[in-house]
Write a structure and sequence with these properties.
363 residues, seven-stranded parallel beta sheet, 13 helices, 12 strands, three-stranded mixed beta sheet, Rossmann fold, alpha/beta, globular
Amino acid sequence: MMDLSFYRGKKVLITGHTGFKGSWMSQLLLREGAEVYGYAKQPPTDPSMFGLCGLKTEMESIEGDVRDLDALRSVFLRVKPEFVVHMAAQPIVRESYRNPVETYETNVMGTVNVLECIRQTDSVNSFLNVTTDKVYKNREWEWGYRENEELNGYDPYSNSKSCSELVTDSYRNSFFGNSGLRVLPITTARAGNVIGGGDFAADRIIPDCVRAVSSGEKIRVRNPYSVRPYQHVLEPVAAYLMILKRQWEQPELAGCYNVGPDEADCWETGRITTEFCKAWKNHTGKEADWMDLGKEENIKQPHEANFLKLDCTRLKRTFDWTPSWTAKMAVERTVEWYAEYVQGKNVRDCTERQIEAFLREKR
């Protein structure tokens, strides 16, 4: 069983805590007795997991924008966090085509501001910046990208996250290395495609599935043949907390890590949609089906990579890390959560059950 009791009584600051992954991390840390502080704008969707699970009443949730350096600095100076996880971002590829300036401001200058606050806050012992598997220059390879591959995302979202990686590396070298102000372990984590209950964002496959079936419509899939490294949200969230702890204990472990599933769980979007439909019927008794949007409608879509895998050998070897839930299990847990949501059940209870099950199975 994975033991996160290390965080009991520790001050952890999460940027972007009102988002999908931030809410799961907040819940996990609160369960372990951490002092959790969050800095973010209002939840990006309505409904939101943050609201449905009542997290605002259990942690100090500070409303703010990572683009506001002065406001962010005041939080760091007051809270004096020991551990910092940076997840605040504009995270949607298609949205980045609509609003590229805001995407770059948030994802690049937001990272600069967080690092600048850490530079001025001696209490921070360990920092992790969450980026994405899309930071790599995509060559449509059939094998997974490794951490030493070229960083050059294609679209504004992916490219802004590549820039975030470079900013982090510059601060690490300039201010936090052996020749800097102080030695501080800093890691960037490049996670694969994450699914799980509580995601209500637009233009993501599982939320799109839930919205369609809840309305009695067919699921419309933009590119059913695109391959992505799918994993349940608890896999990367647990990995982030593990890295954050281990690099504090052994600073030489800091760096950059891919966080994704085994190769067998790099699925086509059509396959994960089919599994969703099966699980939805099992949990609700209602039929679900999908259609290929590209065949049904002649609509030109913004560019998205067709083939993307991660090589997670470094994470596995360094930390003896192995994924616990396969893609099929991830879909099952995800549909379980949404089925309880649409049936009006307490999703906080479902979230707690899934966390318990995951930690029991995680080494």
